Amino acid sequence: MKALLPTGRPEEMVELGESQEPQPAADEALIEVRAFSVNRGEVFQLHGPLRPGGGRPGKDIAGVVVRAAADGSGPAAGRRVVGHPPANGWAQYVAVPTRSLTEIPDDLSFESAAALPLAGLTALRLLRTAGSVAGKRILLTGASGGVGHYVTELAIGEGAEVTAITATPERGKHLTEFGATVAHDLSEAAGPYDIVMESVGGTSTPQSLALLKERGQLIWFGQASRQPAQLSFFEFFKGPRSATVRHFHYEHFDELFGTDLAQLVSLVAKDRLHPQIGRLEDWQHTATTLNDLRDRKITGNAVLRVG
Ligand SMILES: NC(=O)c1ccc[n+]([C@@H]2O[C@H](COP(=O)([O-])OP(=O)(O)OC[C@H]3O[C@@H](n4cnc5c(N)ncnc54)[C@H](OP(=O)(O)O)[C@@H]3O)[C@@H](O)[C@H]2O)c1
């Protein structure tokens, strides 16, 4: 089968090549992939030299079940599904644990479904971590990507007031349509906030921490700038006397991915969540798409069609 193989070269991180068809375990279904999406974390992983035994990338896929799991779990052959395998999804076929799969309705395209898993699961679980956000003021940094889009739509849908930080007005346009206040520098953000969701790192972390209310919480979920947070004792004199910082990783939850994927699909069906596909290409153009994602040229999700 054809698959995208890591090259170890920073400018062409992957190339189409031949790979063995997967041999699914008893609790895995074999999926013919129709579309997949790419994420910043995968760009980071592909950017360095090849890791021995590093495997192939790909965590967000949508497609059709060609062989149901041998243990009888999960969807039957022929069903349309979205899934979140641990790896190897940028390929014609992938084996996906049935606990990380859910069916999609006929009116949800493979492309829109593929935009849901990593970004949508992260957004859903970030909001769960935050607790009830109705009436709360939220500051969200690094907001123009897939996660920012879903967090903004879901949080505003729950009654929160969201200030989103994006590099330019153009990159924040889709967020203003949900009712978010969009700013392009933290100095423009009118605090204090009940909750900060911070994913940029560098100076963004202490600056946004200083914008919290007394006893507010900062949920720390990324470092898009690749710069570690620079914490300054003196910066804190401008902020709350006391606040909570919570480290977040979307995998550190008890819920199965399949259960939460079903929630996301249901939110889309109820018109409460709208995947934003900022780039849609044939998968031959994956390397260029990865570069553009890295260089902040894509808003929302980047989706590739397996032609
Ligand atoms: N902890 C977890 O479990 C988890 C899971 C998924 C994703 N994440 C992280 O969450 C963040 C958002 O994910 P995503 O998929 O929405 O990513 P994305 O589409 O690449 O968006 C990241 C955003 O960060 C902003 N950014 C600000 N400063 C940046 C810089 N110096 N370099 C690059 N980007 C910068 C960019 O917006 P502007 O260009 O408009 O500023 C960009 O749109 C990422 O940091 C990702 O690694 C964490």
Give a description of the structure.
The protein has two domains: 2-116 and 275-305, Quinone Oxidoreductase, Chain A, domain 1 (Alpha-Beta Complex); 124-247, NAD(P)-binding Rossmann-like Domain (Rossmann fold), CATH 3.40.50.720. 24% of the residues lie in helices and 27% in strands. It has eight helices and 15 strands. Strands 3, 4, 5, 6, 7, 14 and 15 form a seven-stranded mixed sheet that branches. The chain has a six-stranded parallel sheet with strand order 10-9-8-11-12-13. A two-stranded antiparallel sheet has the order 1-2. α3 crosses α4 and α3 packs across α7. The two termini are 13 Å apart. The chain binds NADP nicotinamide-adenine-dinucleotide phosphate. NADP nicotinamide-adenine-dinucleotide phosphate (NAP) binds at residues 39-41, 118-119, 122, 142, 144-148, 166-167, 171, 199-200, 221-222, 224-225, 248-250, 293, 296. The site of NADP nicotinamide-adenine-dinucleotide phosphate has 26 residues, from α1, α3 and α4.
